[in-house]
Amino acid sequence: MLRTNMLKSKILHMGAVVAALSLTSCNNEDDPTPQPEQNADRWVTVAGALMGDSPGDGNGGTKIYAVSYEDAINPEIEIDVFDNGEPVKSNRTARLQISEDGSTLFNIAYGGENGGEFSKFDVAGGSSYVQQDVTVNISQYVGTAPRWSKLYNGDQNGIAVNVANIAANNAAENSTEPFQYYRGTATVLDVDLQDVLIRATKDYEIPLTEEEELAGHCIFRLDAPVLNQAGDKLLIGTWMRKYDVATGERESEWDRLGTKTVVVDYPSLENPTIITSTQANGDCSGYRSNVNQLAEDGSIYQATSRDTDGSHILRITPENEYDNTFALSLDEALGLNDVYVDAWKYVNNGIGYAMIRHGEEDQGYIARLDLNQQTAYLVNEIPDDPDVRFNQFQGFMVSGNDLLVPVSPLGKDGNIYILHSQTGEVSVGAKLINKPGNHFIGAF
């Protein structure tokens, strides 16, 4: 087998002449519509999460390694991320973003002493990620573990979000006010990815309806920001929580509200409003990857989690309202119970892929979604192994009609799989060399 740590010829072929710099302790377009065509002559960054205290926890950090696209889809190639890769600056599993052409990696360190530090790196092949001499720390605005996503606007901007200091309106000592609500302070921050600076930041409370707040409901977390096709609104996913208004204790079970998304003006970040789905009641904040996906028709397709009827795919119209005539129930489409979407990616022409688990199982599966027909089926070509996990998955690479996905059971070798979205066919790409307790979390 050829080994991908012997990348000299590939680096010369791709014209990457750079000096390596360690990540120690870690044709821009104005049109924000995703562009389906990709240049195959590009780097593909494969990311792996290291075990901390227990297999699959990902708390040992993240390593990354870059190969050519040609090698990524070649089953004769072996990729050894954990022995040959570069550590990413992050206290836990990093939340990585990559430029549209694969040449620049963006990272905001998650937790630890450098949590909230934004940096960018030139991708130079193998373990060579060359840090650019520009950084900015956003922790004073959104904390040391911010949720963030790169926008679909030609690598121009990234949005970080946070909710802090959730409390009752009458929480102050000796307050005589009657209870009205639990709220936190929401922060939305715009990072200029090219000039590496904070372009804007806004803080505000985001109220629910009076009835919802009097019952103890509130927004616990914001995540998964996405820019609409018109480029004038940000849509931000929510994770809801409910408190017992008599005791102040957080409730573990309650009658959930309809799925809610926060909409704010862009680029001003002003005028936060809430839209609510009548088709699902799960959260739409995702976990390590963005569950809000912009399609070429201007619609935003959104995956829910923690839904009482299993995960759904919802649609938000180009007018920034839920289309309450549309809902793809994955329980119904797949004939399973309590489907949970860990991550998903829209490809094009109405086709996307979701990484799921269901019931009480931790095993991960991949489902092909046809949003036009509102149908889905499981991809049988990936390993059917109880140790396959997608709960920390965050990175997908779209190339034309193809989606590249690394898959392996915990601690076992795996492969990059090429999912051909329009035909439903699956090809096997490069072999992934694993280590005990580790797993792969993305290809970018």
What does this molecule look like?
With 444 residues, the chain is mainly β. It has a single domain, classed as YVTN repeat-like/Quinoprotein amine dehydrogenase (Methylamine Dehydrogenase, Chain H, 7 Propeller). It is built from 6 helices and 30 strands. The longest helix is centred in the N-terminal third of the chain and has 7 residues, at 8-14. The chain is globular, with a radius of gyration of 21 Å.
The description of the largest β-sheet is: 6 strands, mixed
What's the mean pLDDT score? 90
CATH superfamily: YVTN repeat-like/Quinoprotein amine dehydrogenase
Number of DSSP strand runs: 30
Shape: globular
- Helix and strand composition category: mainly beta
Gap between N and C termini:
24 Å
Helical amount: under 10%
Low-pLDDT runs of 5+ residues are 1-38
- What's the CATH topology name? Methylamine Dehydrogenase, Chain H
CATH architecture: 7 Propeller
Cα radius of gyration in angstroms: 21 Å
What is the count of structural domains? 1
Bin the strand percentage: 35-45%
Strand order of the largest sheet: 1-4-29-28-27-26
Total of helices:
6
Q: What is the CATH C-level name? A: Mainly Beta
List keywords for this structure.
mainly beta, six-stranded mixed β-sheet, four-stranded antiparallel β-sheet, 6 helices, 7% helix
List the helices and strands and how they pair.
Layout: E1 2-3, H1 8-14, E2 43-49, E3 62-68, H2 69-72, E4 77-79, H3 81-84, E5 86-87, E6 95-98, E7 104-108, E8 117-123, E9 129-137, H4 139-142, E10 147-150, E11 157-168, E12 182-192, E13 197-204, H5 210-214, E14 217-227, E15 233-242, E16 260-265, E17 273-276, E18 292-294, E19 300-303, E20 312-316, E21 322-329, H6 330-334, E22 339-348, E23 351-358, E24 365-370, E25 375-378, E26 397-399, E27 402-407, E28 414-420, E29 426-432, E30 439-443
Parallel strand pairs: 1-4, 4-29
Antiparallel strand pairs: 2-3, 2-30, 3-5, 6-7, 7-8, 8-9, 10-11, 11-12, 12-13, 14-15, 15-16, 16-17, 18-19, 19-20, 20-21, 22-23, 23-24, 24-25, 26-27, 27-28, 28-29
